[in-house]
Amino acid sequence: MATKIHPTAIVSSAAHLDQDVEIGPYAVIGDGVKLGSGVKVASFAVIENDTTIGSGSEIFTGAVIGSIPQDLKYDGAKSSVVIGENNIIREYVTINLSTAEGSKTIVGNSNLIMAYSHVAHDCVVGNNCIIANSGTLAGHVTLEDRVVVGGLVAIHQFVRVGIMSIIGGCSKVVTDIPPYSTCDGHPARFYGLNLVGLRRGGVKPEVMQNIKAAYKIYYQSGLAKAHALEEIKKTIQPSTEINRIVDFISSSQRGLCH
């Protein structure tokens, strides 16, 4: 199937469009944009600057991708947005360039970013994540794979959200969200495991029990962080999941939610 560009769309001659791309009415594709095969851009969407979007992704009405960061430190540096394959980016989503020269705002593969959500400068979004309506990621936020961010959630800059975790709607997130967890509140607090996500992710029941035991040690033993991590490593059978938890907590700069 050939590329389809609506006659009212504005597509720069300096943009690169692979085969089967569809550009809707009044959409704007700026200089330096690269669209992979089968990308669909709906009406009134704007994609500009050094933005790359992988094959099979869909950009819905009014989305703005690749605009300059909302960061007072930005001085016109050449930075970029890199979006992977098979993403669904719904109406009026905004995804900004990163701030520093040569840096990137990154969105992985197979994510669903719902209407009015915002991904700020220097964010990294993994694979198979869901950001519900009006979810807001401040600068330098990292979402690991298979994260679910509820509607109207606001995540503070530099926060990390661990793999397979879920954040309840309207939460205020100011500290790191641990892997495999359910967190909710204002500010967000740890409430237990994301059991649905763990099951969907194919995590074995015995591993789920070990994850639960690890968080019981961390949150309820009364031990300091370093001692709690030593206790987890000493008493719980190692696995990919347990190692991720230990590494995540060890490397946390903002601390974990309470």
Q: What would you note in describing this structure?
A:
With 258 residues, the chain is α/β, with parallel strands linked by helices. It has two domains: 4-143, UDP N-Acetylglucosamine Acyltransferase, domain 1; 199-251, Udp N-acetylglucosamine O-acyltransferase, Domain 2. It is 17% helix and 28% strand. It is built from four helices and 28 strands. It has helices at 195-200, 205-220, 225-235, 240-251; strands at residues 4-5, 10-11, 16-17, 22-23, 28-29, 34-35, 40-41, 46-47, 51-53, 58-59, 64-67, 80-83, 88-89, 94-96, 104-107, 112-113, 118-119, 124-125, 130-131, 136-137, 142-143, 148-149, 154-155, 160-161, 166-167, 172-173, 181-185, 188-193. An eleven-stranded mixed β-sheet has the order 1-4-7-10-13-16-19-22-25-27-28. Strand 27 (181-185) and strand 28 form a beta hairpin. The radius of gyration is 20 Å and the shape is elongated. It starts with a strand and ends in a 7-residue tail after the last helix. 40% of the residues are buried. The model has no long low-confidence stretch (mean pLDDT 98).
